[in-house]
Amino acid sequence: MIGVAVPALLGGGLVVGGAAPSTAARHSTAARHSSDAWTVSDPARSDLSAQLGLDSAGELHLAVDRGGAPVLLPGRLGIRTGQHDLTTGLRLVRRKDRTVHESYRMTTGKQLRRSATMKEATFTFRGADGAELGVAVRVSDDGVAYRYLLDGKGPVTVTGEASTFDLPTDAKAWVQPYVTSYENERTETTAGAANSAQPGTCTGDTCSFGYPTLFQTGNTYVLLTEADVDGRYSGSHLDHVDGSGAYSVALADDKPVTAQGPLATPWRTAIVGSLDTLVGSTLVDDLAPPSKVGDTSWIRPGVDDWSWLSDGSSPGNYDRQKDFVDYAAEHGLPYTLVDAGWQASWVPELVRYARAKGVDVILWFDWNDLKTQQQRDDWLPRVKAWGVAGVKVDYMYSDSQSTFQWYDAILGDTARDRLMIDFHGATIPRGLQRTWPQVMSVEAVRGEENGQNPTRDIFLAFTRNIVGSMDYTPTWFSRPDRKDSLAHELALPVVYESGWTSLGDNPEGFAAQPVAERYLEQLPTTWDETRFVSGGPGARPAGDRQAVIARRKGDRWFVGGILAGAGDTMKAPLGFLGKGSWLVETIGDSGGQLKRTVRTVTAKDTLAVPAAADGGFAALACPAARGRTDCEDPVVTAPATTLTLNPSATTAGSGARIGVGAKFLLPRGTALRHVRLTVDRDRLPAGWRATGPDVTAGSLPAGRTLGGHWTVTVGKDQPGGEADVPVVATYANPAGGKAPPVHVEEVVRVSVPLHGTVYASDQPFLTETNGYGPVERDQSNGEAGGQDGKPLTIDGTVYAKGLGMNAPGQVEIDLQGRCTRFEAHVGVDDEKDGQGSVTFTVLGDDGKRLATTDVVRGGQAAVDLTADVTGVHTLGLAVGDGGDGKNYDHADWGDARITCAD
Predict the structure, then answer these.
(1) How many CB atoms sit inside 10 A of residue 882's CB?
(2) Which residue, among 424, 356, 357, has the nearest Cα to 390 in the 3D structure?
(3) How remote is the C-alpha of 414 from its chain's centroid?
(4) I want to staple 375 with a disulfide (CB 3.0 to 4.6 A). Which of 409, 516, 527, 787 is the partner?
């Protein structure tokens, strides 16, 4: 960030009587009440300005003009804290001006290289009790923003803001009733009539609306939102009294915010201008803090195929997930996303399978599993060690300060572990992707998974997607009872920007649309330039709405056009193209199928595409050249290779040495470059070590084997159970550029004999089921998240080791036939306050019952449970619900121990 200070306007002192009286006179409210007024103007042009006025009661108002015409009428400003009311009785103390120029680079977004120039004026006011309030106002060529500055040290509690945006009541409005998921539909109405158009989130005559909210006054659009929100504050929304044009800022949950001073509040933000200005605006990111991540080389946006939308049960099916990996590999997609239902028992194997094909895995999480620092410290390094590239975290559904503090924490943790992240069930982006560049996308939208609505699709292009990446999950071509055309679906991942674009169909559905497949293979997810081409959110006389947006990557332009309503000829003026001739491939609807046409054009031409009802088109343009017939770059995929280990599995005791041999082979194809074969020492179990050199080859031709050998020593304190020794071959990605090396991995599965006394909670589970949430190790069941329980406690006795379950549930543990006795103190955990009833059963091979209890009830003392497990290979620990359902049935296996051979 480069801040350039300039002399204050009018000498930098107090400006009395108004710096721009003609502007104040244009606003009847300001002219009537303002005794002092000050103007902050756009540094790049003269048609956008903000007027800050102080009336005779010492109340602040802010208005915005564009081209000499009012856009925002004077709206109240001010803030209340637990100590001071800074909304009235104010007087100006000083003003300081500067020009802020920032140049920065994004990893995602509508434009990777950014440059912003903003005029900033900071006004300091003093209240009746002597407290000071700072108001910083910024004006740029795409909008106006302001924030409050409280300079006091120590904690400060904000009880509310007087912040209000005031629109003419007859201004057109596109509003969304506020819910924390931001998944309500938007409606076209007017600023004054919004409540009656969208009832549902109202109290009396006041209704709440979520950001971003779009208005139109004359030829000017205004998009209201906020920027730079983190854990020092809460998110907010807009409250509106029926019939008025005033939209006031309301803090989340109507709760005070407590922060450590000095405090700078979030920016109250209005993006102002034409639709072209809105679509290209970077104001929300410009107002956000600079990146907190120094090295971003590991951050890689891209397209993924996502199975959950079209095949909801598939994330729990390893073989079906392999189908999606295979599809991604075949079509050059860098990622596959595994959603809710995956099992820790097979994800590492799936990751190895995918990475060998040049595909990385994104893994879904319920936020309840990553809610605490302990949970994140357990899960995030673990999935990183598996080779997972990033996580999708779901169900936050809150704009509270505590939730933003959680965002701060998980963003720091994922940056530490070099994991990219997508927030689903989340709040809207408020500049988050600039500050934390590993954020690939954010949901906060009523997307494809919530049904289809072509009119909504148009609204989103001019509202939600203006302010940041939007995880809409388009392209479910095979969707039953689809509400839009095939070309409309194909255009969506161009119309909408998202650092990770999750394609919604399955391999079979995509295969039925080869024209779409060919286009999606070319699709970037980051852009050098974004341009509004044509359309608008408002209903046309024919009753339809349109949006055509062009995005450039390198020397190619991708164009997406969508329509809602009756069929029409969609027109796209091609003035955004450069000089010379261009080849344009256009894909549209034709008789229920997709049809591709190719023509040569110049920037003076207009593309005219017949579109079906609720239809659209997608296009790809590139510089024309002699002999060139299409705009496609070749799809480069990773070749099939083999990595063979000897042994692939073995048994070894503590301190033993294991010889590991590896052979890496490319059976056929172009030679591999920069090949390295090694044991991944960083992922060996604690206390293990490997000796022996890495093996490298600058070039590995097809048919030639690269071999290596290492000696691995088992840790002296290694408990019994299974451990993996990972052997990895890497080579330069054939796709070139910034694509990461292809990672081929196999593991030697080492079985360490169980010995002495071991705890059940320290052993891997062969299988696991639970009545609610996951089975917990060394803590009670808690709630739905992992590691969210409390110390295991039965009738006041606390157990440091054991299992926390919820009936009905069961785990299975491999005893290797080496153990003789199982024992535990079992009962219902005290966290259920005497409620719950459970049975406990110990099972042997083939489900043979070895020991069981009667029904054990909450508040009852622990029951001693023992079983002879001599010769047993598979130990099962099962809990039943006592015959009255699973509610409150938190079953503890306290101090669950297994005695094995020495």
Answers:
(1) 21
(2) 424
(3) 12
(4) 787
- Listed in order, the ranges of the chain carrying CATH 2.60.40.10 are 642-752
Question: Is 521 an annotated catalytic residue?
Answer: no
CA angle 13, 16, 19 (to 5 degrees): 85
Long-range contacts of 1-7 (CB under 8 A, 24+ apart): 1/100, 1/102, 1/104, 1/290, 2/101, 2/102, 2/103, 3/98, 3/100, 3/101, 4/98, 4/99, 4/100, 4/101, 5/98, 5/99, 6/97, 6/98, 6/99, 7/97
Residues of each domain in the chain carrying CATH 2.60.120.1060: 757-900
Q: Give the tens place of pLDDT for each residue, 516-556.
A: 999 999 999 999 999 999 999 997 765 579 999 999 999 99
Q: Which two tokens stand for residue 622?
A: 């590139």
Residue 449 is a catalytic residue = yes
Amino acid, res. 537: P
Please say whether the beta carbons of 608 and 570 come within 8 A: yes
Structure token digits, residue 709: 């050998």
Question: Can you say whether residue 715 is alpha, beta or left, with left for phi > 0 and alpha for psi between -120 and 50 degrees?
Answer: beta
- The predicted-structure confidence for 351-371, as pLDDT tens digits, reads as follows 999 999 999 999 999 999 999
Please check whether residue 125 is in contact with residue 133, taking contact to mean a CB–CB distance below 8 angstroms. yes
Q: Which of 97, 230, 369, 449 is catalytic?
A: 449
Q: In this structure, which CATH number among 3.30.1640.10, 2.60.120.1060, 3.40.50.170, 3.30.70.2660 belongs to the domain 757-900?
A: 2.60.120.1060
Give tens-digit pLDDT for 253-300.
888 999 999 999 999 999 999 999 999 999 999 999 999 999 999 999
Rounded Cα gap, residues 422 and 444, in angstroms: 11
CATH 2.70.98.10 boundaries in the chain: 2-286
- The catalytic position among 394, 413, 448, 776 is 394
pLDDT digits (tens, 9 = 90+) for 627-673: 999 999 999 999 999 999 999 999 999 999 999 999 999 999 999 99
Separation CA 244–CA 33 (nearest Å): 19
Among candidate residues 174, 175, 173, 171, the one with its CA nearest the CA of residue 217: 171
Tell me the C-alpha distance between 572 and 588, whole Å.
14
Tokens 């009756």 belong to which residue? Answer: 566
Cα–Cα distance list, 564 to 198, 567, 591, 607, 616 (Å):
20, 8, 18, 19, 9
Query: Could you read off the pLDDT of 758-784 as tens digits, one per residue?
Result: 999 999 899 999 999 899 999 999 888
Residue with tokens 């924030």: 147
Provide CATH code, domain 2-286.
Answer: 2.70.98.10
Q: CA distances (Å), 803 to each of 375, 739, 772, 844, in order?
A: 16, 43, 14, 18
Which of 545, 786, 636 lies closest to 333, judged by CA? 636
User: What is the pairing mode between strands 85-86 and 79-81?
Assistant: antiparallel
Peptide bond into 634 cis (omega under 30): no
| Statement: 642-752 belongs to CATH 2.60.40.10 | yes
pLDDT digits (tens, 9 = 90+) for 7-27: 332 223 322 233 333 333 334
At residue 119, what is the residue type? K
Q: Which two tokens stand for residue 376?
A: 């994140």
- φ/ψ (deg, to 5) at 76: -60, 145
Q: How far is CA 104 from the centre of its chain?
A: 21
Question: What residues contact 438, with CB distance under 8 A and at least 6 apart?
Answer: 107, 293, 296, 299, 390, 411, 414, 415, 418, 419, 420, 421
**Cα–Cα–Cα angle for 757, 759, 763, rounded to 5 degrees:** 115
β 500-503/302-306 pair status: parallel
Is the CB of residue 210 less than 8 Å from the CB of residue 225? no
Q: How many CB atoms lie within 10 A of CB 755?
A: 17
pTM beyond cutoff 0.85: yes
Residue 802: what are its φ and ψ, rounded to 5°? Answer: 145, -170
